[in-house]
Amino acid sequence: MPEVRLVGPGGEQVGVVRVEDALRLAQEADLDLVEVAPDARPPVAKLMDFGKFKYESAMKARDARRNQANTVLKEIRFRLKIDPHDYATKKGHVERFLKGGDKVKVMIMFRGREQSRPEMGMRLLQRLAEDVSELGSVESSPRLDGRNMTMVIGPHKKKAEAKSEQRRKRDEERSAKKADKNVPDESVPDEARA
């Protein structure tokens, strides 16, 4: 006679019962008999509302997907002879990507005779790594790849941490703006307000 280890609707252990008895108990309680651990000996079944169970498991899966953050590899290209202003702009992009929790692949493109001076490219990449060292560290050191030299910088913070921090800052700014709107302007006399 097939038996199951029955768990009640509140999570309480009922014990090992015959399948017919478990089905009868489920029908009396107007619930479903759901097998939750088929590989156990004897299999574990629970009295529950199956529709509610499916809904809750779908919600858990959705929350897990939402909290899982994918780290993206962003790419920034430099030229060996870069203007200081352009360098500052591109460094700002690298910083923004690292703050967002993404890895950054920095690439220097060599043209013509510049290929005979790889040490200059190495110096530029090391300078960039030092400039953004508080946000990220070098994961893949500079290496020559044909006409290009590449380096990967990884963020110190994980993507999920960075996202939650950005969300918290945005919420703080919104609440500060609301507070500012609710405070009456003291410089305007009461007669002018009316």
UniProtKB/TrEMBL annotation:
<feature type="region of interest" description="Disordered">
    <location>
        <begin position="135"/>
        <end position="194"/>
    </location>
</feature>
<dbReference type="InterPro" id="IPR019815">
    <property type="entry name" value="Translation_initiation_fac_3_C"/>
</dbReference>
<comment type="subunit">
    <text>Monomer.</text>
</comment>
<protein>
    <recommendedName>
        <fullName>Translation initiation factor IF-3</fullName>
    </recommendedName>
</protein>
<dbReference type="Pfam" id="PF05198">
    <property type="entry name" value="IF3_N"/>
</dbReference>
<dbReference type="GO" id="GO:0003743">
    <property type="term" value="F:translation initiation factor activity"/>
</dbReference>
<keyword id="KW-0963">Cytoplasm</keyword>
<keyword id="KW-0648">Protein biosynthesis</keyword>
<dbReference type="Pfam" id="PF00707">
    <property type="entry name" value="IF3_C"/>
</dbReference>
<feature type="domain" description="Translation initiation factor 3 N-terminal">
    <location>
        <begin position="2"/>
        <end position="64"/>
    </location>
</feature>
<comment type="function">
    <text>IF-3 binds to the 30S ribosomal subunit and shifts the equilibrium between 70S ribosomes and their 50S and 30S subunits in favor of the free subunits, thus enhancing the availability of 30S subunits on which protein synthesis initiation begins.</text>
</comment>
<feature type="compositionally biased region" description="Basic and acidic residues">
    <location>
        <begin position="161"/>
        <end position="194"/>
    </location>
</feature>
<dbReference type="InterPro" id="IPR001288">
    <property type="entry name" value="Translation_initiation_fac_3"/>
</dbReference>
<dbReference type="InterPro" id="IPR036788">
    <property type="entry name" value="T_IF-3_C_sf"/>
</dbReference>
<dbReference type="InterPro" id="IPR036787">
    <property type="entry name" value="T_IF-3_N_sf"/>
</dbReference>
<comment type="similarity">
    <text>Belongs to the IF-3 family.</text>
</comment>
<keyword id="KW-0396">Initiation factor</keyword>
<feature type="domain" description="Translation initiation factor 3 C-terminal">
    <location>
        <begin position="72"/>
        <end position="155"/>
    </location>
</feature>
<dbReference type="InterPro" id="IPR019814">
    <property type="entry name" value="Translation_initiation_fac_3_N"/>
</dbReference>
